[in-house]
Amino acid sequence: MHSPVITVGNRKIGDDHPCFIIAEAGINHNGDVGMAKKLILAAKDAGCDAVKFSVFTTEKLVTKGAESFGDKSYPLPKFQHDIYKSNELTKEDWKALKMLSDTKDIIFFASVYDEESVALLEDLGVPCHKIGSMDITYHKLLSCVAKTGKPIILSTAMSTMEEVEDAVHVITATGNHDIVLLHCVSSLPAIDTHANLRSITHMKEVFHVPVGFSDHNKDNFVAVAAVAAGANLIDKQFTLDCSLPGIDHHLSLNPGEMKHLVKEIRKLEEILGVRDKYVLQPEYEVRSLSRRSLVAKQQIPKGTAITRDMLVVKRPGTGIPPPKMKEVIGKKALVDIEEDTVLQEEWFS
């Protein structure tokens, strides 16, 4: 069963459409709108379909005492508040970034964390919204985003199937059925053997929506494997330089690595092909030479009625195919046929 197709901007997300590739810039702009602009340009150059940031108001997101989480091997600030506060951008900044993205023909949208951020992005005219795994149980936000009528990309890391079902119900209860679910593993850095990519097809079967993969692995292997497993969308963390200060840069792909990922996915899509089984153009010559045909086992004079013992089956496949043997038996030869000759249909009546 094919999942429905969701339209985001000028792109379609779903089975039998190219994988929708997102450069997740997140907060890798380090609070600098100039760096954010460079991320947009680099994502476009890498061949990504979209660039995604994170829009939030720190005071509405975390308490001042909320401890940080993430890659334990990397020196993290003690409190989440410090991380987010230093990475806020202004409404004018977001407007400039949306305008630049439109100019460069790359889809711009963001993960949203509060109703004010949703309103800001709606004013900018984004084509969709993303809700992170952390907020899958924040039903008020889900409902707020759903009521925009825009497609929703919903991450499902750290979630039970019941929590995903509840979230989907909250969204669809508003009348919005344009949902893309993202399979994701929230361990930083992610471990390949934890990927559980079979969840992608399982969620497609259960929810009948496109399903993608939000990849937190440092290399590209799991993301490419996810596309082979049926992912309709790949969301990959993106930075200008993995050595920059910040909690996500060292876990992200740099521009060269992202460009390589896009090329790998596009090549895989060519390899995967389509859902039909047909003879490829390069196969026709091999097919005609390697398949078998009906062949005269003996000399057959003109006017002779064909019997089974006059026929054998040999290569090449340039004559009457073996499944038509019963149609030939009983017919009369219209021409003289030499022994070991490949038989042709027009020689019989």
Description of the structure:
By secondary structure, this protein is of the alpha/beta class. The protein has two domains: 7-272, Aldolase class I (TIM Barrel); 283-347, Alpha-Beta Complex (Type Iii Antifreeze Protein Isoform Hplc 12), CATH 3.90.1210. Helix content is 33%, strand content 16%. Strand 6 (129-131), helix 6 (139-146) and strand 7 (152-155) form a beta-alpha-beta unit. Helix 1 (33-46) packs parallel to helix 4, helix 6 (139-146) runs parallel beside helix 7 (161-172) and helix 9 (221-228) runs parallel beside helix 10 (255-272). The mean pLDDT is 95.
Q: How are the SSEs ordered, and which strands pair?
A:
Blueprint: E1 6-8, E2 11-13, E3 20-26, H1 33-46, E4 50-55, H2 58-61, H3 80-85, H4 91-103, E5 107-112, H5 115-124, E6 129-131, H6 139-146, E7 152-155, H7 161-172, E8 179-184, H8 198-207, E9 211-215, H9 221-228, E10 233-237, H10 255-272, H11 283-290, E11 293-296, E12 311-314, H12 325-328
Parallel strand pairs: 3-4, 3-10, 4-5, 6-7, 7-8, 8-9, 9-10
Antiparallel strand pairs: 1-2, 11-12
